[in-house]
Input
Amino acid sequence: MNVDALTTALAAIVRRIDPDAGDEIEAAIAEAMPRLLESDGEDEPGSLSRADLYRIRAVKLIARLSPPGALASPALRRALRLEIRARIGELLGAPLPASAYLDRRGGDEPEPPSSAG
Output
């Protein structure tokens, strides 16, 4: 996934949350991308990883572009965290390992595929 694809994916998330969101959503996200993807370089032990920073910034951006109260549902917030985690993993080229800081509570791990059969 490249930056344009991430922009489109984030815009689609905002439109699912707010079907009345206009065409300016994609432009607002594209404008925010340089800040969202800004990084201090290498990950250091004991610090937030680059992926953690991207996840936090993406969720904050979506919250800022969504109507007040739109993210009140815990189920919606959980789904949003999982989707953002997947999208950032695609951007970085690999599934993201659990974050020591963002995934501590548990329950935000993707469900393992069932081996029914």
